[in-house]
Amino acid sequence: YLYSVAATVFPQVFPTTFMQDGRIGVYFEAAAVIISLTLLGQMLELKARSQTSAAIKSLLGLAPKTARRIGADGQEEDIPLTHVHTGDHLRVRPGEKVPVDGVVLEGESAIDESMLTGEPVPVMKKAGDALIGATLNTHGSLVMAAQKVGAETVLSQIVQMVARAQRSKAPMQRMVDTVAGYFVMGVILVALLTFFGWGMFGPEPGWVFGLINAVAVLIIACPCALGLATPMSIMVATGKAASSGVLFRDASAIENLCKIDTLIVDKTGTLTEGRPVFHSVIGTGQSMPPEVLRLAASLDQGSEHPLAHAIVDHARAQGHSLSKPEAFESGSGIGVRGQVDGKRLQLGNTTLMEEAGLDTSPLRDRAEQLRLEGMSIMYLAVDGVLAGLLAVSDPVKPTSKEAVTRLQTEDVKVIMATGDGLTTARAVAKQLGIEEVHGEVKPEDKEQLVALLQGDKRRVAMAGDGINDAPALARADVGIAMGTGTDVAMNSAQLTLVKGDLMGILRARTLSVATVKNMRQNLGFAFFYNAMGIPLAAGLFYPLTGHLLSPMIAALAMSVSSASVVFNALRLKRVVTD
Taking residues 365-387, what's their average pLDDT? Predict the structure, then answer.
């Protein structure tokens, strides 16, 4: 455009070699068409890119706009969702969405949680069960207490996680950014060589040809397609994953998951339901079973472990009056310690008892028999004396067997590492076909196991749900947290399975493989396009064809290449993950 303005206003300053048909050629229409085609390409690109954010838009659209609050006088009124506060009592009528996260106070109903878990079968909820905002109440009326509102709800956290993941850069993208920096400098150099090459050695008017071809090189080599190649794939993949109950923290997790060849899994809450059922209590000669149960349940009130919840719930159901712990300390992964009614208590596995110097042999045979049945065993010591044991059963998740089998089919070695006794762990592992088992391991032992495998050049993923899994989750190449577990575990992991089901790992892995393949396709296309387009724009084929590439055609090709990369990334929305 500037060249054309100068040629119009000051034609006398141009050498005669620039003249064509007795005048200096101008390119106003070419400049206008180039800008128009570039804008057209950007419009196509923006339209395609808007589809990549559809996942976040759909998530935001899931939340209801109002809630029905029950006042202290029993009167009910519909209020905006923004006016709901923690502790408010809300009514959820049949067919309505749960407004915020909370707990059921009254009623019973089936809740459709497919928007979070991808599982189409509704889940029955009754008094005391947790509710997640934006899930659908299929039938029955519920009264709930609001516990988390605004940005604290699960839905809001998912939206934030998906948005953060979409903004993150994959390791492949960082490599592309480095290459793009050198690429741009190379293109400028090629454009200069084109200008001077045509001007000095090309046919008349060589300098005019040189200028046009140099502009064509700069336009066609615009690294838009190169820059869009991986971000578009990441944006689509994270949105697709969120709709399947899989939350990636960042792009590197997507890229690394497909490389995993070893998976370490915790037992309780990962392979098993994580909702243990109390089985039995056995006391020694000096301690009666009811007192063993009461003391253990009193101490376990301060524990987050699912096994502790089973003991506490059973003791309360039996009508025991539980005492408040006067002191409490969690020895993550091996048990708990504390003081109840002036008595010094220790409750945990064999490792905890050995650390305390206690002999468990009086109950060893009975404990081993229960472990062979798949029970988790906890010993109770009172004032340094073994008082008894408690047995809790935790059924294996229905999908764990299929998930383990399919992972092994994909050449992923599955290893179990749990704080439970080795006999119990082996009983569960036998059901699932897991060969390598590590029992009664501490949190630091799990982390060391991850480090040991990494030292053997293995790509390791760790799946767990508890505080004791956090160090290993952080150390692993990909940490996978169960969405049903603790916040510490989820904060330490790169990948969260909302449903807490190992089948989610298969869905995530399938999407990871497809995403990495898609990114490579985009990068390959971008490099191939530039490898073919730059020589054509520079006029290297002119001696063979007698034709030059118009800057207008170069602008169209550049725009179409960028849009095609985006549309190729959108194909990830059709990936079948189940």
Answer: 88
| pLDDT attached to residue 85 | 93
With cut-offs at 50, 70 and 90, classify the pLDDT of residue 119: low
Cis peptide before 276 (omega within 30 of 0): no
pLDDT at 379: 93
Q: How confident is the model at residue 200 (pLDDT cuts 50, 70, 90)?
A: confident
Q: Which of 101, 112, 250, 266 is catalytic?
A: 266
Mean of per-residue pLDDT scores for the chain: 83
φ, ψ for residue 378, nearest 5 deg: -125, 130
Question: How far apart are the C-alpha atoms of 314 and 306, rounded to whole Å?
Answer: 13
Counting Cβ atoms within 10 Å, is residue 535 exposed (0-12), middle (13-18) or buried (19+)?
middle
Specify whether the CB–CB gap between 549 and 216 falls below 8 A.
yes
Determine contact, residues 279/375, Cβ cutoff 8 Å: yes
CA dihedral 49, 55, 56, 61 (to 10 degrees): 120
Give the count of alpha carbons within 13 A of 77, CB side only: 9
Q: Are 533 and 554 in contact (CB under 8 A)?
A: yes
What is residue 251's three-state secondary structure? helix
Report helix, strand or coil for 397.
coil
Residue type, 455: G
In this predicted structure, what is the pLDDT of residue 55?
Answer: 56
pLDDT band at 117 (very low <50, low <70, confident <90, very high): low
Is 266 designated active site? yes
Spatial distance between the Cα atoms of 172 and 256, rounded to a whole number of angstroms? 10
Is the pTM here over 0.70, yes or no? no
Give the per-residue pLDDT at 56.
60
CA–CA dist 15, 11 (Å, integer): 9
SS (H, E, C) 478-519: EEEEECCCCHHHHHHCCEEECCCCCHHHHHHHHHHHHHHHHH
In the prediction, which pLDDT does 105 show? 93
By residue count, the chain amounts to 578
